[in-house]
Amino acid sequence: MDKPHQESHFFAHLARMNLIQRWPLMRSVSKENISEHSLQVAFVAHALAIIKNKRFGGTSNPERVALLGMYHDTSEVLTGDLPTPVKYYNPDIAKEYKKIESAAEHKLLSMLPEDLQSEFAPFLISDSAHSEDKAIVKQADSICAYLKCLEELSAGNHEYALAKRRLEETLKERETPEMRVFLDTFAPSFELTLDEITE
């Protein structure tokens, strides 16, 4: 028997990801929204999982990791993007923001028809994702922020100099062999011009 039609606002919310700007306190040569960022994180996370499997004996599922990357910031359609210096100003603020983030994730999940929720939950609810997959997406997230800094600095925007130094520290803390391969192989191109990368 067919299920009764149930209207859902889930994808209408996701469509608004392109309205939420990242780096809101920074002057940027090129603006970036969370929709663009999430796609780049999905690309990078997928690559990290493949490198891990091919070169370091990993058993990750690159497609699942890519999906997790696509959905990793969706809760921000309800919370907005809180700047990192504010979000991590002290442990109390970080803890409270995690609660807000979790509530937003559950609210977003609840917008889906009930029979579909269990399929989307592993991607929308950060606590339900496999810990190894989450770690890869976190690594990809940091790499993408670092690549953004390289792009801005190469365009002459020194506003991103301190962010780059901080992200270099974060990348060192999270470094894995697959991250090192990705950064050595792909990151230098982000400091080049269009002519230089198309020669």
Layout of helices and strands:
Layout: H1 10-14, H2 34-56, H3 62-71, H4 76-79, H5 84-87, H6 91-110, H7 117-124, H8 131-154, H9 161-174, H10 177-186, H11 194-198
Helix pairs in contact: 2-3, 2-8, 2-10, 3-8, 6-7, 8-9
Radius of gyration: 18 Å
The rough form would be described as globular
Task: Give the helices and strands as they follow along the chain.
Answer: HHHHHHHHHHH
Regions with little confidence, pLDDT below 50 for 5+ residues: none
Helix content: 55-70%
Distance between the termini: 60 Å
Mean pLDDT: 92
In words, what does this structure look like?
- The chain has a domain at 28-80 and 130-198: Hypothetical protein af1432, CATH 1.10.3210.
- It has 11 helices and no strands.
- It has helices at residues 10-14, 34-56, 62-71, 76-79, 84-87, 91-110, 117-124, 131-154, 161-174, 177-186, 194-198.
- It is globular and about 55 Å long.
Name the features.
199 residues, mainly alpha, 0% strand
Give a short summary of the structure:
The chain is mostly helical and 199 residues long.
